[in-house]
Design a protein that fits this description.
Length: 567
């Protein structure tokens, strides 16, 4: 295998040749598969091509604006409210009314677009399932295309899965959760599909293929005349929201459906975006169904935004919870903003998973979940996220005990007290200490997550938590920050400072621990050594990479020759 076009590898051709029927200007370099061909039809690809050609320059400009903002922050500037858009923040406008089919979102479950996961999540008892092409998915060609096949079957109601090992067939219940889909962020390419000689934009591929094949059926069976529904990740400002709004309008026009049919919830998971929440809702006001506290990515973004600020070092990541003033301020302001504009304010993820072999530890984990969800519902959140079906009932009980039969708290909890939240509140330095165990945990989690991601898994159970790319990112950027500034591990009271020598020793020791924990056979077969190289390189780089997955993506792209090989 050889490197091609800066992405991945070229696979050897096989004898049997088939190819996708593609529009002019399209080159599909992913493996041919007859099932995938039902998704990658000429008409569906043409829709993606039209989106790419219409919006690629807008997307490129937005990515350049991100770079410019990063330069300003690295030179000492702080993010804040934009004086030029104060008229939007002070205005008395509201978003379009919430569709009845998604008025009640008190518990939502999230997970990758894997077939068994989709069935279990839709059957979980949650109000919403967010099917993920982003942080919970390793974006290999196989995962992405099978995910599209799985979602099409799910929308059609025909999805099933046979688990031969358990001799069990999984099918949908009569009553299921409402389906939302999260495409990738603006920054991620789709290197298996080239349009006009350059990789397609990943989120336009995810959105375009799903929308094209499913909008008509979804609106009849799930949306009660609305939909499809989406979650939008990683945005930094309203300019990026405006592009999504234009994409939605373009899709509605293509489909011949009413403006405002498509609805989306935006994850507020970057520090710059918290100062643009009104503006983001305003740009999407015909298509919005709220904002969500993407708190793990938000912590990652805090470090990334302040990478040039040695006075803003984070304590151990386990200490950066919602009780930190800057995190509580973010949550409170999000609730006030959403309810003022007539849409849902969604809470954050409960990452715990049931601990089946330790009842005491399991009850302690569930107690943490209940306390976190009680804090959210009392603050005014309209719903929350869970990572595992086993948490749904506990989360549902907490929200129902407070909300009763009301589908949400949009009209009843206005949080006008949060109107006094300032830039200083949202930027307050987090309190806590840094420890050797924090450095070790970051390293151990980061390497194991990345090893799983490289072998096709994007949602990984580690130490009784469901980890996705966001928690791996926190591990990476915190290690980088501590290394860059030679921080003292002040929580250990030993005066030890983080440097390359210490980090190298920690990596070696944690790799040995990982091998003991997973077993020699799994360690040998897995991609732990490759993951260790990538993770260590990123933690010790002179400049911080924007995203862990951008670098790692090159390791999972496989290009097939023109003419296509069918395996």
């Amino acid at each position: 295998m050889i490197s091609v076009g800066g992405y991945g590898y070229t696979a050897p051709a096989s004898r049997k040749i088939n190819s996708y029927d593609v529009p002019e200007g399209v080159d599909i370099r992913g493996r041919f598969d007859e099932e995938f061909a039902t998704i990658l039809t000429k008409d569906a690809l043409q829709f993606v091509v039209d989106l790419q050609r219409e919006f690629r320059n807008h997307i490129k400009y937005s990515m350049e604006c991100r770079k410019e903002a990063k330069r300003r922050y690295n030179e000492g500037a702080l993010p804040g409210f934009d004086p030029a858009t104060r008229y939007i923040r002070d205005g008395q406008w509201t978003c379009a009314p919430v569709p009845p089919s998604v008025a009640d979102r008190r518990v939502e479950i999230t997970g990758p677009v894997e077939r068994k996961m989709i069935i279990n999540a839709l059957n979980s008892g949650a109000k919403v399932f967010m099917a993920d092409f982003e942080d919970a998915l390793s974006p290999s060609w196989e995962n992405l295309m099978r995910g599209q096949v799985n979602l099409k079957d799910a929308v059609n109601g025909t999805i099933s899965f046979t688990d031969k090992a358990r001799n069990r067939v999984y099918k949908l219940n009569d009553e299921t959760a409402k389906l939302f889909v999260r495409p990738r962020g603006w920054h991620l390419p789709e290197a298996h599909i080239f349009i006009d000689g350059e990789p397609a934009t990943g989120c336009l591929v995810d959105f375009g293929l799903y929308f094209f094949h499913n909008y008509a059926t979804f609106r009849k069976t799930q949306g009660q005349g609305f939909g499809p529904f989406f979650y939008l990740p990683k945005m930094e400002n309203s300019r990026e929201a405006k592009i999504w709004n234009s994409v939605f309008e373009r899709a509605e026009k293509m489909a011949g459906i009413e403006k405002g049919s498509i609805r989306a919830t935006v994850l507020i998971e970057t520090l710059p975006a918290v100062f643009q929440m009104d503006e983001i809702l305003y740009e999407l006001r015909d298509h919005s169904v709220g904002l969500n506290c993407g708190r793990w990515d938000y912590i990652f973004s805090y470090v990334k935004t302040f990478q040039g600020h040695p006075d803003r070092l984070l304590p151990d990541r386990v200490q950066v919870g919602m009780s930190q003033h800057f995190m509580k301020s973010y949550s409170d302001l999000l609730i006030r903003t959403c309810h003022r504009r007539g849409v849902h304010a969604m809470g954050g993820m409960a990452a715990q998973i049931p601990i089946r072999d330790d009842p005491t530890a399991n009850e302690a984990a569930f107690d943490l979940v209940r306390k976190d969800k009680l804090r959210e519902v009392k603050a005014g959140h309209d719903g929350t996220w869970a990572a595992h079906p086993g948490l749904i009932q506990a989360c549902m009980e907490v929200f129902t005990n407070t909300m009763g039969n009301s589908p949400n708290q949009i009209e009843t909890v206005k949080r006008d007290d949060a109107s006094s939240i300032t830039e200083d509140d949202l930027l307050q330095r987090p309190r806590g200490v840094r420890t050797m165990e924090g450095l070790r945990l970051n390293t151990r989690v980061g390497i194991q997550y990345l090893a799983a991601w490289l072998t096709g898994a994007g949602s990984v159970p580690l130490y009784n938590l469901m980890e996705d790319a966001a928690t791996a990112e926190i591990s990476r950027v915190q290690n980088w920050q501590w290394l860059k500034y030679g921080v003292e591990l002040d929580g250990d009271a030993l005066g030890v400072r983080v440097n390359r020598e210490l980090f190298g020793r920690v990596v070696d020791e944690e790799m040995a621990r990982i091998e003991r924990e997973v077993g020699k056979e799994k360690f040998k077969k897995g991609m732990y050594k490759e993951a260790c190289k990538i993770f260590s390189r990123q933690c010790s780089a002179s400049t911080l990479d924007d995203f862990l997955t951008l670098d790692a993506y090159n390791h999972i792209v496989i290009h097939y020759p023109k003419g296509q090989s069918k395996l």
